Amino acid sequence: MERTHFFDRMFLMRAVSRVQAVVIHISAIGLVIASAAFATSWETSSMRTPGGGLVRIGMTRQEVLKELGQPQRARTSTHSTAAGGKSRKKGSSSTYRADDGLYTITFSGERVVKIVVTPNRD
Questions:
Q1: Based on the domain organization, do 46 and 105 belong to the same domain?
Q2: What CATH number has the domain bearing residue 97?
Q3: Closest Cα partner for 91 from 117, 112, 68, 115?
Q4: Which of 12, 26, 52, 65 has a 20 to 30 A CA-CA distance from 113?
């Protein structure tokens, strides 16, 4: 009885060597990882509102609420703003849904400091 190896069962044709099979598997894993990297989120400096307005880094919370209304999801946290960690500043983030994905706007105090886009995965 002849013993078969994993790669022999995966590639029934004997024309593909074990080394070639390993290279093919590693390449496939690389493609999966690369495609996942392109599907992640990214930062932007501004976003267009459904009404044609523009939300930019540096705007106040009130300006954002005026342009976008109430967020779909809001989160508040307190973080250190000084090197020694003594000064505390309130920060928060608000998430809005748009046609092309989710926009998470991060505030430090009352100003927008970061806008992160997460595309729809449909």
A1: yes
A2: 3.30.1450
A3: 112
A4: 52
Q: What is the pLDDT of residues 102-116, one digit of tens each?
A: 999 999 999 999 999
Give the domain range for residue 25: 6-38
Tens digit of pLDDT for each residue in 77-98? 765 555 555 555 678 999 999 8
Neighbour count for residue 54 (Cβ, 10 Å): 10
Q: What is the pLDDT of residues 13-37, one digit of tens each?
A: 555 566 766 666 677 676 656 555 5
Rounded to two decimals, the pTM is 0.60
Return the amino acid letter for 108: S
Length of the chain (residues): 122
Among candidates 119, 118, 120, 113, which has minimal Cα distance to 46?
A: 113
Contact status, residue 121 vs residue 39, Cβ threshold 8 Å: yes
